[in-house]
């Protein structure tokens, strides 16, 4: 019989010989939150007419008549456990114990994993396969964690993902693979990143990206219906190219719930206005509106408050020019857009359907193909909406707006912050170096203009969060070697680190495609959590540390000697 976690205990005090008396005395001596073993008889109970606000989880139709109570441990008096008590990260066990939302998040996570396995394995014939955690160092694009061995100079690397193993399985005759996999990346941390994280990993042989997207949609829809009771899921998630997302929303993971589409307008504007926007010669100029308030005065107060805040500093210090911000006010000439001139003001008003109190933003940027994950006006769009919601001027967005972002550039220029695959060409794979060009025309462009090559790469995005990404893979060894050696210009030594994959592809590997969903992010978004730490049992802090167990720890001299390591003095 499955019971709730809380049930009322009753005892008889009819006589001193009644076992309930001893049980009652034992109960009185216990401190709250102490574990006990109770022996008794379950019996019917008349439920109260008005359950208290604290009665959630109680069994109201039954009670236990106590015969004996045996203390199993004691809760110490120096720990104050009350609903309002806030425990720090170094007391994670007490955080989980005292915060029902944390326990419910872990239960939600467990059920979500069960549904994912059922949907993929039972309904779509995937095989769940565990891949090794002790891998080897290969330049996929993120920094790795190394695991030294007792053999001098030899180390494993923890996997950034099971990417290469799952492609090898496609060459091994496995038609459909899945795994809820642990992955590790030694990268800068944010609210949605952890040095170790979990992803729903899948790969399909003889499949295209369309096949993968359909499977993933079925998983996400089932989770939404069964876990969140969503009844209005779309038949298919909308699609949007990378260039469209960047031009309309200034982000490759747009939050479609916010509206405020961005439009390119430099062709409308007077030359002198473009010159005032920033120092760029012949820039692209974007415009957007945010309907902050119907009262222009309230909108102006909001603008001044925001621009004086720390959140505005990145936009004020933009080397390509500060944003031009205007408040629509019908009491003023050209509604407050005098600097636009009559013709441009009229065109912008018609383009954006402007009304009193609307906030209009102009921003210049280099007139070049999009690169990276966002533009300054896209970041400003998010910051202004967040500030307006915080001040009660706009309602917080609700619901879930899923979309697929497709047709990413296959390669991007490398930066110091993102070292990529470490080749000498100044390029890095936008996704990873195993992603296939989208069309035969893109294959031809590899020879002449790699930065113009479009990838057969797709990201699933919801509410401004990238839930996961995938691609059709390069399945021929000569093409894979060409990308690594001739396009990225990885050294011969590093190319040798991929010999296992090239050999697998050479052995008649079929076409294949796959995707990885960030499981931590998925659960956090479904539960409306700001950080993935709220849905992980033992998360790392912003410094990558486990505050409770105090990891990582400094290596001892004995450990250094065992693994043939020596610390260098930092300079």
UniProtKB/TrEMBL annotation:
<dbReference type="Pfam" id="PF00152">
    <property type="entry name" value="tRNA-synt_2"/>
</dbReference>
<dbReference type="InterPro" id="IPR002312">
    <property type="entry name" value="Asp/Asn-tRNA-synth_IIb"/>
</dbReference>
<dbReference type="InterPro" id="IPR004364">
    <property type="entry name" value="Aa-tRNA-synt_II"/>
</dbReference>
<dbReference type="InterPro" id="IPR045864">
    <property type="entry name" value="aa-tRNA-synth_II/BPL/LPL"/>
</dbReference>
<feature type="region of interest" description="Disordered">
    <location>
        <begin position="40"/>
        <end position="60"/>
    </location>
</feature>
<protein>
    <recommendedName>
        <fullName>Aminoacyl-transfer RNA synthetases class-II family profile domain-containing protein</fullName>
    </recommendedName>
</protein>
<dbReference type="GO" id="GO:0006422">
    <property type="term" value="P:aspartyl-tRNA aminoacylation"/>
</dbReference>
<keyword id="KW-0030">Aminoacyl-tRNA synthetase</keyword>
<keyword id="KW-0436">Ligase</keyword>
<dbReference type="GO" id="GO:0004815">
    <property type="term" value="F:aspartate-tRNA ligase activity"/>
</dbReference>
<dbReference type="GO" id="GO:0005524">
    <property type="term" value="F:ATP binding"/>
</dbReference>
<dbReference type="InterPro" id="IPR006195">
    <property type="entry name" value="aa-tRNA-synth_II"/>
</dbReference>
<keyword id="KW-0067">ATP-binding</keyword>
<dbReference type="GO" id="GO:0005739">
    <property type="term" value="C:mitochondrion"/>
</dbReference>
<feature type="domain" description="Aminoacyl-transfer RNA synthetases class-II family profile">
    <location>
        <begin position="106"/>
        <end position="552"/>
    </location>
</feature>
<comment type="similarity">
    <text>Belongs to the class-II aminoacyl-tRNA synthetase family. Type 1 subfamily.</text>
</comment>
<keyword id="KW-0547">Nucleotide-binding</keyword>
<dbReference type="InterPro" id="IPR004524">
    <property type="entry name" value="Asp-tRNA-ligase_1"/>
</dbReference>
<dbReference type="InterPro" id="IPR004115">
    <property type="entry name" value="GAD-like_sf"/>
</dbReference>
<keyword id="KW-0648">Protein biosynthesis</keyword>
